[in-house]
């Protein structure tokens, strides 16, 4: 069954209709892709299990699945990580950049654990 102006029990959607985006997992057509899916042409494609929400690709995370092994989001890179890594500190569930004077930091961007000797 093809859906034009209905949104349930679909096998494909009318790209020029009211519900143009097809979700193959849920067999539905929608106006937008729901959380956990991203739009790829006229399809709603599932995000990776590490992403709660994503955009562009399954690994371009807008938010992270806190129940995964990669709960910490780097907003600069739109990735979910196991830990923040050098040059970043944990703020809630986000990995934020350290100040340029810090090689590593904790709690705030200027609370250096080690200094960046190449910064001016």
Structural account:
The chain is mainly β and 120 residues long. Among the domains are: 2-46, no CATH class; 83-120, no CATH class. Helix content is 0%, strand content 40%. It is built from no helices and 14 strands. The chain has strands spanning 2-3, 12-13, 21-23, 28-30, 37-40, 43-46, 51-54, 61-64, 72-74, 79-81, 88-91, 94-97, 102-105, 112-115. It has a two-stranded parallel ribbon. Strands 3-4 form a two-stranded antiparallel ribbon. Strand 5 (37-40) and strand 6 (43-46) form a beta hairpin. It is elongated, with a radius of gyration of 20 Å. The termini are far apart. The model has no long low-confidence stretch (mean pLDDT 90).
**How many separate helices?**
0
* Count of DSSP strands: 14
Structural classification: mainly beta
How far is it from the N-terminal to the C-terminal residue, by CA?
65 Å
- What general outline do the C-alpha atoms trace? elongated
**Average predicted confidence as pLDDT:** 90
**How do the strands of the widest beta sheet line up side by side?**
1-2
* DSSP helix fraction: under 10%
Secondary-structure element order, as H and E?
Answer: EEEEEEEEEEEEEE
Q: Low-confidence runs (pLDDT<50, min 5 residues)?
A: none
CA radius of gyration is 20 Å
